[in-house]
Amino acid sequence: MQLATALGITATLAKWLASQRPTSAAIDITQRCNLKCKHCYWWQQEHPPEMSTQEMIQFMKGLKSQGLRVALLYGGEPTLRLELCRAASNIFDSTLIFTNGLNGFPRLNGAQWLVSLEGPREINDSIRGDGVYDQVVKNILSAPMSPLVHMTICRPNSQREVIEEFVRQMCSLPIKGIGFSFYTPVSSPEDDKLFVPLEERDTIVDFLLALRERYGGRVGFTPAMARQLKSNGKFKEWNHYELCPVSTRVRCFKADGSPKPCTYGEEADCSRCGCAAVVAYRGAFHPLDLETLRVIMGLLIP
Ligand code: SF4
Ligand code: SF4
Fold first, then answer.
1. What does the domain layout of the chain look like in residue ranges?
2. Which of 94, 256, 260, 289 could form a disulfide with 224 if both were Cys (CB 3.0 to 4.6 A apart)?
């Protein structure tokens, strides 16, 4: 890691500890995607036209100059604008790129790939499309940088045996780690089919901790993160927009540069949120927890 990058990440962590100011930009760099996943809020929503490459690069530089040192790139599918992934990785101190993995994981300076899969082949492909699991695994095996893997737990993939088999399969691959969100309702007709009720989620949370014991530290889910999700834990301390760290720490933007309240969009139901990023941030800093801070550092440092 370069000295300037290390200093930038240190400054971001210091800001998280000492102030309430925004530190990160979450940007939809494209509105296009090469998949149509069943549980996805993206293709169900209206999106504005994208900025051109030059406009987006200037926009990102402007955000950095305002003190936003960390970028989270979303889409659509960010690799459809790989030139912007490269530009962001050179502009920001740390860049985390959420991808579906179909286009592989090119080496980037200062950026980390986070690939979404939803379970073993059959379950994943029933949600993401035929052939997706095998293609992504092939891309992981040939990746110059080991990606992080992310699973969104929803009703169709919430059975313990499915989650454990997926963790077992991923831990046999050259991945950096695996993390979990729970499906967050977005006022979609599919919400009821996908959302895992909170009391059921509580038991899955305990199971994820057991998987970390069984499969080791690459399972990026700690007891402090579990407390943030538990309905009788700290969940009620942040599951309103004004209380969620996204409202203070992260500035979210659409592909035309206009602001939006949350990466999940305008219709996200904060009262039933299952966002892994919020859970990791809150777990690391409310109160300070070194085990979860290591998970955060794994996200920030490629
Ligand atoms: S790859 Fe991502 S953006 Fe594209 S449809 Fe699937 S979940 Fe949505
Ligand atoms: S949906 Fe979740 S991450 Fe988004 S603002 Fe609400 S609580 Fe925060």
1. 3-13+23-300
2. 289
Cα 117 to averaged position of ligand 1 atoms, centre (Å): 10
Q: Ligand nearest 248 Cα, by number?
A: 2
Taking the complete model, does pTM exceed 0.90, yes or no? yes
* Cβ 183 under 6 angstroms from ligand 2: no
CATH 3.40.50.300 at 3-13+23-300, yes or no: no
Ligand 1, atom nearest to 36 Cα = 5
C-alpha 109 to ligand 2 mean position (Å): 29
Mutate to test the pocket of ligand 1, among 35, 97, 126 (most ligand atoms within 8 A of CB): 35
Asked if pLDDT for residue 5 goes beyond 80, the answer is no
The residues that bridge with 66 in the sheet, in sequence order, are none
